[in-house]
Structures are given as structure tokens and as C-alpha cells.
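pasting GreA/GreB family elongation factor for the record, 155 residues
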Amino acid sequence: MSGGPEPISAEGLRALREELAQLRAERGEVAATLRGDDPVGDPADAADELQRASDVTRLDRRIAELEGRLREAEVAGAPSTEVIGVGSTVTVRFSDGEEETVEISEVAEEREMTLVTYDSPLGKALLGRHAGETVTYETPGGAASAVVLAVGSGG
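structre below
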């Protein structure tokens, strides 16, 4: 990505908020099982306690990442409708003549619109481009190209 605040599509925003809610709930459940200052019983109990504490730390790190990304997206505002970036919807025509609308995303998940992650070969080729430009990228079958027909903001 660009290194500055990156926009995010409405769908990406929804996915991050959903993951954040799930992680917060999971963290609450795991944290509730920690004993705190109570003495731990046998070594197996101690190992379980250490694992749960480690899980809370891991969850805290991921929660902080997501909260930071959501703050960044808020600062960045809506995706550009002129230059392709994360969150943009892009209509492309592939060399075989097929046209498809894709969304440049940080996260890959199943949904109706095709998602292209920003770090995939096609995603990398599209970032920073404008309507009318031709991009080339590598596929498992070799080099491919596509013409950018339109750029819009995700949603």
C-alpha cells in the first residue's frame, strides 16, 4: 500500500468491524477464565493458564491492529474515483474480451463482487492506474493484460 492512510471499501470496513467484534467477544471469554492472583494447581493447570494468557495477548495485538486500521481508514476518507487504490471498484476488460468488475481489497473473502487483494499480481498492476490504461501482470499461465475501463469507489 502507499504508506499513508489508505481508504477502505464499505465491504472491507464491514469485514474488519465484524472481525473486531468477534475478537473482542473471544477476548472477553478467554480473559474471564484467567485466575489472576489465585494459586494455580498442578503443572497442567499452570500450562493452561499460561496458554490462556498468551491467547489474550495475541487477541489484544490483533484488536489493536484492527482498531488502528479502522482509524486510518477514517482519516483517509473514501476511495478515489480517479486513481485505483485500496477500496476502489475497477471495471477491466481482459485480453480475451471478458469484462469484469473487481474490488481492490486488503482482505479476501467470498462475496458476489470479485475481490482482488492489493498485493496480488493483478492488484499490484492496478494500483495507481487510471481508466484507459492497460496493465500487465503475471498469472500461473504466463503474462496477461487488462484494460482499465472505469474506476469507482467501493461500496
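The helical segments are 10-32, 43-76, 121-126.
Residues 10-76 form one domain.
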